[in-house]
Structures are given as structure tokens and as C-alpha cells.
Write a structure and sequence with these properties.
Strand content: 5-15%
Oligomer: single chain
Strand order of the largest sheet: 4-3-2-1-8
Number of helices: 49
Largest sheet: 5 strands, antiparallel
Shape: globular
Radius of gyration: 34 Å
Length: about 1000
């Protein structure tokens, strides 16, 4: 008996489940479960009845039953939240709710050989998957991502592996992604939560979700009852909230895998949103001690454009393995055909088929369904290049499309313009057909295997090549007409589905000139704004650029054009496309200046200066434009304030700190009321970027905290990252090591979610500083160089400044060839910077101190004598860079034993005794000021005072976590106690042990020179 429901049929005699002409492989127990439920159509089936039926009375756990139901639903392609066929009656059992048609099997069906979907080949890939499974079962979870072109068999390999895992006792949860940005946030993770909830009782779910319900229900509110929650979580797209959701999902899965080995399968990850992909990275970084295995599939061509998937392929995410699939080789194709055909085929036919399909399983299967049409001639060894794969695919798959009636074919061509997956309601609206008529045509296509149903009222082409072929058959004019129809259909959905704006924009733009320019412009801007809010910066930049292209087609309002240019430039900058951003902002600056739009002008130059390009910091023409804008702003309002602080930023290398401080203070005062939070945020950012301290009691840490609060209020993730960067720097400057480490961790976690180019770079730079603090000099050097390679493309000379200052620190801590190599690189970098900015104080001190470390004492002495006169006054108020420079000068005075210079420097360094010399967002750390005051006092022979300073330095280093400077503080503290060997001895020993442990070769060499007896390691 054949049992038909929807596009499916069950043949009980032949033990087959089919969708249209396609055989669906399911495990015997799953097939029996579906069959049992179908035979009890519209009746409640309890768990006890299932055990007595398909399970034959075998004692079985609730989990095994739930897994069988979950796999049955996966085979039928349905969403458990909106069941088409299998409905859960919570606490009771299940009910089959599909419309059932019974029919005797036809003679054709009885005599036709079974069309199996065998799993052949892939031995190497299967072994790699098995290794990953074995590691997960041993408590070393991991992620495996399978990628390859469309039709290569990614899903089939994942299905085979999931079956193996299930048979081995692992719980399996399966989820798939949807095309475009229209899927709910985090999809397919909510789907996996639903599948898991179907497999477990309420008590288990409540235990696993304890403390996480609020976040989990924000993703999947339908699970409120299952998780034992009384209220729903709220959905918030801010980075902080997104991070909380990521952590909650990862925590839940970790707990679940502790109960039983858990395997998650996620299909089509190239279609996932950024948040869903970020969760893969979060899980990968926390999976090592679990029995959790994640298997994902994605198309290589589309996937490499997604940063997380690209990072996975590049091997830069831990605990992630990637498997690349290609077409099947000749021998495996021959095995396949031998198992699926009744008549043995000659090798010439197999060779022709292999050539035609390039080993892609989807094409082999299509040909295997039409054996009389095969070309029996072999390709021949001397044959030239044959038709492209797309042409051969068109010939093969076109046979199935030719079976469609004309009306269905016409409808599917509109669907093909919509995309690989399409909402049925949109298709009905665009085709102006009643919904029931559209569904009839779609069901016909589904029965023929051209379409397959997906959840939420959508259908999907069974293979991407079907959609491509139908799209290619349309003339260009017909495509544009159908794009216009689809654009208006998607626009009609915006009230219920705001994410449809991306589809509407795409179709309006593709429809031109069959749509109006105003419509295309409006939806392109809205799509760009929506994509940017989702942190999809490349997508947002694309739509901003397309909106500008539309404006180019007509006479545009200069203000509107400037606004779009500014949005595009900022988005390109955030996305890391620095050269593109620079060119766009150039145009924006000139356009706004020409038309007197000074509010937009100051926003444009503020973003420009963020680029830290050399031209922004030293170009007098740029400075002149800022001055001109200030002269044209008649009132000292928020526009004036933003220009004033931009002026202070732009002239950081050529204007005294005191003058820049005055400008920044004036800007801060003008925006203190915060009636314009966006202007206040811009001024705060500018004031912090002036690299200056404020003498009137304004705390830079307080400004950074205010910036963080405004960034969160305005939902600006890029500015939140910048605020956390400044907070980390100022906390380290104050010596608050634990808070600094926490802020760096928070920055890294948020940067992983937001994924801006500068945020990623800053995370690397923070890592450099943390490694140096911890005494891991070799790793600090390696990552500093990696960060410089990335940062110089992004930030220009500013990134080089970070590297040079860091290399100097590393060089003076090393001894021998390593020190020579690093110091030479530091000197070379400093020369490059001094060509651009000849009077840059910090780089002059780097050159001189590196020369001293190289043994060129004369050069250092000459520089010291030229700078430190009795009338020497460092720049005031002392900013972070100037403090680093002052400390470099103090180091030279101490090393050279220059008492006159030391006496002058003590006087200028003492007011900053409570600070640590820090720069470069924390990557350049030169110890507490008290350490250098102690060194200077030793030079002056003031031992008691030196001991007091160095004891303070020792404690300050312990508080900040600075291993290297703590060891040096102990060494010099011991030397400041020449008449107290009882106290000095343990200090020398402690310094030596630290130097041995962390490889501080210069300190070890100095201890040997001093005759300190080596201690056992």
C-alpha cells in the first residue's frame, strides 16, 4: 500500500520513503516510526504505544524516542514549532496531522528497481570525521566544517556521519540556514534548541537552562514552557546583548554535552547571519574540554566572503577542522552506477558520464534517472576542452524542468528571480495569482524533485543549479520586469518582516529602469542602514554605494549626496577597507566644505582622522581646511565644538600639548549639557584622541567611561569598542591590573561579535601588551610584528609607532643577537617615522635609547646633553606619549650615570609618581614612574630615597601584573641597600628566579656581571 501525504509517499512493501521521485534515506527505526504515526493518522500516539509498535516492546529511553521523532521530522523537512505532519502533545505523545491518501502501488512502481541514494567513496573525509568524533568522545570537542561547490555531496556526507554518530550513542540535532538576511536572528541555532527540547523532558531542560533562560528565550521564545520560565527574554541587537546571547547558547550546549555526547549538524552556513557564525567561533574557543561535536556545511564560493568561515579555512580559529570536497573520482562513480542500475555499464559510458558531470553527485543522480539519454561515447584522451560545467549541468538538469507544464514553469522562473529560497506569499503576490493556485503549481514541481518545502511558508529549489538554469532562460528585460514585481511584493511585507528591506532593495535596484529611481534610492538606503545595524558592514557599504549610483542618475541634493558619502566612508572604514574609505571621505570633505555643510564637514574629518593616515596628521592643507571651517562657523555651538576637537586631533604631532588641551577643554565645555548626545560622543572621542591630560581635574578614565555610556545609549558598537580600548589604557596607566585585564577581555569578546577591522587589530595590540606584562617576550614580539603588518594597512604610520616603541622595549630587555636584531628594527622604523615627522619627540628618544643599547653611548650622551638642560621643561600637561619619551630620557640618564640630567629629570618626573608609563592602547609598557625615579635617585647616590621609590615600584608592578619590571625593581631595590645584605640577598635571588623563569636574558647577564651567585632553577 502506498500512503501519500503532501509531497511524500511511503511504500510499505518496499520499505521506502520518497519525496516526489527522490528516495529519502532514513534509518529503519525512523522509517517504522513515521509509518506507525501515519497509520494512526489524526490519533494521539503515546510513548508507550510507540515502544510497543516500532520498538517491539524493547526497553528504550525517552531520549532515544525523542531522537527518532526529531530525525523523522528532519526527513520530512519540517519545523517542530510549525508542524505540518508530526505534532507534539506535550506530556502525552505525538499525533500525525497530515492529510493522508491511500493508494495501491502501481505496476510501474512494483517493477521499477529501487533508486537508492548510496554513500560511496569519501573514505579520507570519513576518516577525518571519525577522528573528530573519537576526540569528542574522549572529552576534546571540536568543530568540523565541510565545504565545496554546490552539488558535491556535503549534505550527504553529513547525513552519513550523523547516522554513524547516532548508532554510536551520540545525540544528534540537525539545523539548516536560510537564504539571505530574512531568517530570524541566530538561525539555525533556535532550530537546534527546538530539536533538543523535543528529545528531553522538562526537568532536564530546566536544569540545563538554569540561569540562562532569559537569553535563551530571547532567541527561542516558544521554549518558555519547556525551560520552565515564566517570562520571555527580550531581543536586543546591541553588541553587549549579542555577546550575552552567545555565551548563553554556548553554555547551554556545554552543559548538554556533559549529560551525553552531543553532535550538532548545521547546513548551509554561508547563508547564516553574522551572529550565528560568531557563535561557532565562541563555541570553538570553549569546546576543548567537552564531548560536543559541531559539523557544518557551506558552499566554498559564498563562504569565503564570510569572515568567520574564512578564518576557519585559514586555520586561525582553534579546535576547527575543515574538509574540502571535490567531485567523485572515476572509480567511485563506477561503484555508484553499479549499485543503482540493473544493467552493467561499459567503462566508456561511465567515463562519458564522469566527464559530463565532473563527478558531482547531483548531476550523476540526475543522469542515472534518465539512462536512455546517456551519451555512450567516451570523451577521448586527445579531446580538447569540452563545454563548461554550467552548460553540461543545463543539459542534464534541463530534462527535469522540461517535464513541468507551461504555467508552473512560468511561475518558477519568477521564483528563480527571487532566489534559491523564496516565500510562497511573496511569489503569489508578485505573480498576481491566488495562493491556492500557486501552491498547486509548487506541489507539482515538488513532486518532480525541482523544489522542496522548507519551514515558515517557503519553498526552495532542490538544487541551486535548477534556480540558476531557470534564471538564465529569461531575457534581460523579463528579469527586470520580474524584479520589479518582487520588489513591491517584498516592500508590502516590511511592516511584519523588517528584514525584508534587503530583498526589496535588491529587487528595486535590479529592476531599474522598470522601477523608479526614488524607490530604488529609498530602499537602498534603508537596506544599508539595516545591514549596518546587523554588523554586516560589507553588505551595508554595497547598498550605500548603490544608493549613490542611483543619485548619480539624476540631479541630486548636495546635502543628501554628502550624507550618503559620509555613511559609505564610515562603513568602509569600519569594515577595514581603508583605501576605499579614504577616497570616499576625501570626496565627502570637499563636497561639504564647498557647500558650507559644516556639521557634515566636521563629522567627515572626524572619521578621516580615525584613519590615522599621515596626510591627516601632517598635511598643512588639511589643517588649513579645518581652520577655514572654524572661521566660517559664526557661533560657538556644537558644530564649532566638533571642529575644535577635530583640530586638536589633526594637529597632534605639530602643536604643543597645552594648546591642544585648551581646544579640547573648550569643546568639552560646549557639549557638557549633552542635549546632543551624538555631538558629545564625537567630542569625547576627539578629546581622548588628543593624547593629553587635563589640568583642571578632568579624569581621562571618566571621559572614557562617559564615552562607553553614550556609545551604548546610541547603540554604536564601534564607539563602544573604542571606549573600552581607552578604558583599558587608562586602567593600566593607573596600575589597576585586574580591571585592565577584565576590560581587555571585554573588548576582545565584543570585537569577536562586531568584527570591525580596527577592533580586531586593537585586540591583537592588547595581546602584545599582556604578553609583555606577563614576561613572554618572544610571543610579544611575534604578535607585535603580526599586528604591525595588519595595522600599517589599516592605520598607516600610527601602527608603525606602536611597533617601534614596543620593539625598543623588547630590545632593551634582551641580550646578545636577539637584542641586536630587535633594536636594529626599532631604529629602522624610527627613521621612517622621523622622515614624515622630523620633530616627533618620542621617536627621537627611541633613536637615542636604541643607540645606547647598541653600545653607541656617545650618540645617546649627545642627545641627552642637547635635551636636558637646567631649564628643561617637558611638554605640559604631560600626555601619554610625552611620558614615555620622558621615561626614555630618564633611562638614558640612569644608564650613563649622568647626575646632572638625573637631578633635572627627578624634579619633572616626581609629580607623576603614581602613574605607569603606558602608550599604544597598552602595548607599550615602560613600568611605573616610581621605578624610574628610583633609578635616577640611585644615579644621584640617594639610596634611602631610591629604596622607597623602588619598593613602591615593586608593589605597583605586582598590582599591574608587570613581571619584567617587578624583577628589575627587586634588582635595583637590592642595589639601593648596600649596607643591608640580609635584605638585599633575597631580593637578588627573587629577581634571578623571575629572570630564569621568563627568559629575561639582559637581567641575567647583569646579575652575572654583579657577581650574584646563580640559584637553582
Amino acid at each position: 500500500m502506498l500512503l501519500r501525504f503532501g509531497s511524500f509517499q511511503i511504500d510499505e512493501q518496499r520499505f521506502e520513503l520518497r519525496q516526489g521521485e527522490t528516495l529519502i534515506n532514513v534509518q529503519p527505526r525512523v522509517f517504522e516510526t513515521i509509518l506507525f504515526l501515519v497509520k494512526h493518522n489524526n490519533r494521539l500516539v503515546t510513548k508507550e504505544q510507540l515502544i510497543e509498535g516500532p520498538w517491539g516492546g524493547t526497553i528504550v529511553s525517552d531520549t532515544a524516542l525523542s531522537q527518532a521523532i526529531s530525525q523523522a521530522r528532519a526527513a520530512l523537512g519540517e519545523d517542530p514549532r510549525r508542524p505540518q505532519f508530526i505534532e507534539t502533545v506535550r506530556g502525552r505523545g505525538f499525533r500525525f496531522c497530515g492529510e493522508l491518501i491511500e493508494a495501491p502501488p502501481s505496476n510501474e512502481a512494483a517493477t521499477e528497481p529501487p533508486r537508492l541514494r548510496p554513500f560511496f567513496g569519501r573514505q579520507r573525509e570519513a576518516e577525518r570525521l571519525q577522528v573528530a568524533a573519537n576526540e569528542a568522545r574522549a572529552g576534546h570537542g571540536n568543530v568540523v566544517l565541510i565545504h565545496g561547490p554546490a552539488g558535491v555531496g556535503k549534505t550527504r556526507l553529513a547525513q552519513w556521519f550523523a547516522t554513524q554518530q547516532h548508532d554510536a550513542g551520540s545525540e544528534i540535532c540537525w539545523g539548516g540556514c536560510r537564504e539571505g538576511q530574512a531568517a530570524p536572528p541566530f538561525w539555525p541555532w533556535p532550530e537546534l534548541l527546538h530539536r533538543y527540547s523535543e528529545m528531553h523532558d522538562a526537568g532536564t531542560l530546566e536544569r540545563l537552562a538554569r540561569g540562562l533562560q532569559h537569553d535563551l528565550l530571547a532567541v527561542a521564545p516558544e521554549l518558555r514552557e519547556a525551560f520552565g520560565a515564566t517570562s520571555l527574554g527580550d531581543w536586543d541587537e546591541s553588541p553587549r546583548r549579542t555577546l550575552s546571547l552567545l555565551d548563553a547558547m554556548a553554555g547551554f550546549l556545554r552543559r548538554a554535552s556533559a549529560d551525553a555526547p552531543l553532535t550538532l549538524v548545521l547546513e548551509d552556513l554561508h547563508l547564516a547571519d553574522d551572529a550565528a557564525l560568531s557563535l561557532i567561533e565562541v563555541i570553538a574557543r570553549s569546546i576543548a574540554d567537552t564531548e560536543l561535536l559541531v559539523v557544518g556545511t557551506f558552499r566554498r564560493a559564498e563562504g569565503v566572503a564570510r569572515s568567520v568561515l574564512r578564518s576557519a579555512v585559514d586555520g586561525s580559529i582553534p579546535h576547527v577542522t575543515t574538509i574540502a570536497l571535490e567531485g567523485l573520482p572515476f572509480d567511485e562513480v563506477r561503484q555508484w552506477l553499479a549499485a543503482t542500475t540493473t544493467t552493467p555499464l561499459p567503462d566508456t559510458v561511465v567515463e562519458a558520464l564522469h566527464f559530463s558531470t565532473e563527478g558531482l553527485p547531483v548531476l550523476i543522480e540526475a543522469l542515472a534517472n534518465n539512462p536512455p539519454d546517456w551519451n555512450a561515447s567516451a570523451p577521448g584522451k586527445g579531446r580538447g576542452a569540452g563545454p563548461g560545467l554550467s552548460d553540461r549541468a543545463a543539459q542534464i538538469l534541463g530534462r527535469r524542468l522540461d517535464q513541468l507544464d507551461p504555467d508552473t514553469l512560468l511561475l518558477l522562473q519568477t521564483a528563480a528571480v527571487c532566489g534559491e529560497e523564496f516565500p510562497v506569499s511573496v511569489l503569489a503576490s508578485a505573480s498576481n495569482e491566488p495562493l491556492h493556485t500557486v501552491l498547486t503549481h509548487l506541489d507539482h514541481a515538488t513532486e518532480l524533485g525541482v523544489l522542496e518545502p522548507v519551514a515558515h511558508g517557503s519553498r526552495r529549489f532542490a538544487h541551486a543549479l535548477h534556480q540558476q538554469l531557470l534564471y538564465r532562460r529569461l531575457a534581460a528585460r523579463e528579469r527586470r520586469q520580474r524584479h520589479a514585481l518582487l520588489a513591491r511584493a517584498f516592500a508590502d511585507q516590511l511592516t511584519q518582516r523588517p528584514e525584508s528591506v534587503v530583498h526589496a532593495a535588491h529587487h528595486f535596484l535590479e529592476a531599474l529602469p522598470h522601477a523608479s529611481l526614488d524607490e530604488a534610492l529609498y530602499y537602498a538606503q534603508r537596506a544599508a542602514d539595516w545591514a549596518r545595524a546587523q554588523h554586516a558592514y560589507a553588505r551595508a557599504a554595497e547598498y550605500y554605494q548603490r544608493a549613490l549610483d542611483v543619485l548619480d542618475e539624476r540631479s541630486a541634493d548636495p546635502l543628501q549626496y554628502a550624507e550618503l558619502l559620509l555613511a559609505l566612508g564610515h562603513t568602509q572604514f569600519v569594515a577595514g577597507a581603508v583605501d576605499d574609505a579614504s577616497a570616499t571621505l576625501d570626496r565627502s570633505v570637499e563636497l561639504t566644505r564647498h557647500h558650507g555643510c559644516y556639521d557634515l564637514f566636521c563629522r567627515a574629518i572626524s572619521i578621516w582622522i580615525q584613519l590615522h593616515r599621515e596626510s591627516a596628521l601632517i598635511d598643512p592643507n588639511f589643517h588649513a581646511r579645518v581652520a577655514e571651517a572654524l572661521a566660517n562657523v559664526r557661533e560657538k555651538d556644537v558644530t564649532f565644538a566638533q571642529l575644535q576637537v577635530a583640530r586638536a586631533m589633526a594637529m597632534a604631532w605639530i602643536t604643543p600639548a597645552s594648546e591642544r588641551t585648551q581646544w579640547a577643554q573648550e569643546a568639552l565645555a560646549l557639549t557638557r549639557s549633552r542635549t546632543n548626545p551624538r555631538a558629545r560622543l564625537n567630542v569625547l572621542r576627539g578629546a581622548l584622541r588628543c593624547y593629553t591630560r587635563f589640568p583642571d581635574g578632568i579624569s581621562r578614565l571618566a571621559l572614557a567611561r562617559e564615552l562607553l555610556g553614550l556609545a551604548q545609549l546610541l547603540r554604536s558598537p564601534e564607539n563602544e569598542l573604542e571606549a573600552r580600548q581607552w578604558m583599558a589604557l587608562f586602567l593600566l596607566e593607573l596600575g589597576h591590573g585586574d580591571e585592565y585585564a577584565q576590560q581587555v577581555s571585554d573588548h576582545a569578546q565584543r570585537a569577536a561579535v562586531v568584527r570591525t577591522a580596527q577592533g580586531t587589530w586593537t585586540t591583537q595590540v592588547h595581546r602584545v601588551g599582556q604578553l609583555f606584562l606577563a614576561g613572554d617576550l618572544s610571543a610579544s614580539e611575534r604578535i607585535a610584528r603580526e599586528a604591525a603588518a595588519q595595522g600599517e594597512k589599516l592605520l598607516g604610520i600610527t601602527a608603525l609607532v606602536h611597533l617601534v616603541a614596543q620593539l625598543l622595549q623588547l630590545g632593551v630587555e634582551l641580550h646578545g643577537p636577539d637584542a641586536e636584531r630587535v633594536l636594529e628594527d626599532a631604529q629602522a622604523g624610527a627613521k621612517r617615522i622621523l622622515v614624515v615627522a622630523p620633530s616627533y619627540h618620542l621617536m627621537l628618544t627611541v633613536q637615542a635609547r636604541a643607540a645606547l643599547a647598541h653600545g653607541q653611548a656617545g650618540d645617546a650622551q649627545r642627545y641627552l646633553a642637547s635635551v636636558v638642560q637646567p631649564s628643561y621643561v617637558p611638554p605640559e600637561p604631560l600626555d601619554g606619549t610625552c611620558l614615555i619619551a620622558l621615561v626614555n630620557i630618564a633611562a638614558m640618564a640612569a644608564e650613563l650615570g649622568d647626575a646632572d640630567a638625573a637631578a633635572v629629570l627627578v624634579e619633572h618626573l616626581e609629580p607623576h609618581d603614581g602613574l605607569h608609563a603606558v602608550s599604544g592602547t597598552g602595548s607599550v609598557y615602560m613600568g611605573p614612574a616610581s621605578y624610574w625615579l628610583g633609578r635616577l635617585c640611585l644615579t644621584l647616590g640617594r639610596h634611602a630615597r631610591a629604596a622607597a621609590y623602588l619598593e613602591c615600584a615593586r608593589e605597583a608592578c605586582r598590582s599591574s601584573g608587570a613581571v619584567t619590571y617587578r624583577a628589575w625593581s627587586e634588582y635595583y631595590l637590592a642595589r639601593s641597600l648596600p649596607h643591608d645584605p640580609t635584605t638585599a640577598g633575597p631580593l637578588f635571588e627573587s629577581a634571578q628566579r623571575t629572570a630564569q623563569r621568563f627568559g629575561l636574558t639582559r637581567l641575567l647577564a647583569q646579575l652575572r656581571l654583579d657577581g650574584v651567585t646563580p640559584v637553582a632553577k
